[in-house]
Design brief:
The chain has about 180 residues and is an all-alpha fold. It has 7 helices and no strands. The relative contact order is 0.16. The structure holds iron/sulfur cluster.
């Protein structure tokens, strides 16, 4: 029988702050997990919120999207940071991932878990953290449009990291609606 040996790295003096989930986080996991448990309610709320944002499109347009970006981004970063541990990837997929942010996966996988999920459902890289994709599946089962989790996500576009997904989705919806009106 072949015996597998796992070599543990020796501890070093440098522990980057805010990177490992282990100190970050019991409290934050609690909020993140609450959001996933309440994914259905948040799905409904986000739908209404997106409608209001779209209604305000003429206002954003008048002021200028580039001018409103800083204050909106400030709020988005803090609200989503608190609720989802958002990493501001700029291309939000929470509605398709059971309200579990895939950017919290240490491998940043956007289309399901790797093969390393532990038997207890935790991450192989950060053993104290529930696998974001295990949680995504659980969250998606509560949602009306939970089957969107089957949609294949594009790779992350790093060029729009740290930009507002709220404004991007709004501007895209407004452009699509204007284009549809022109076709009629
Ligand atoms: S998918 Fe991107 S924008 Fe959405 S919560 Fe995660 S990091 Fe933030």
């Amino acid at each position: 029988m072949v015996e597998l040996k796992i070599h543990k790295k020796p501890p070093t003096a440098y522990v980057p702050s805010g990177v490992s989930a282990i100190g970050r986080q019991k409290r934050r996991y609690a909020i993140r997990l609450w959001s996933i448990r309440h994914s259905r309610m948040l799905e409904w709320f986000y739908g209404k919120f997106a409608d209001v944002f779209l209604l305000l499109h003429p206002l954003w347009n008048k002021i200028g999207y580039s001018r409103v970006e800083a204050p909106i981004k400030f709020v988005e970063k803090r609200v989503k940071g608190l609720m989802f541990d958002c990493r501001m990837c700029g291309q939000c997929v929470l509605s398709s991932t059971g309200m579990s942010c895939p950017m919290n996966c240490p491998k940043q996988l956007r289309n399901g878990p790797c093969g390393g999920v532990r038997a207890n459902g935790n991450c192989e890289v950060e053993p104290d953290m529930p696998c974001v994709w295990v949680k995504a599946w659980e969250g998606s089962r509560n949602m009306v449009h939970g089957d969107k989790i089957m949609t294949v996500q594009k790779p992350v576009d790093q060029s729009i990291r740290e930009t507002s997904a709220w404004l991007r989705v709004t501007a895209q919806a407004a452009a699509a609606s204007e284009a549809a009106k022109k076709e009629v």
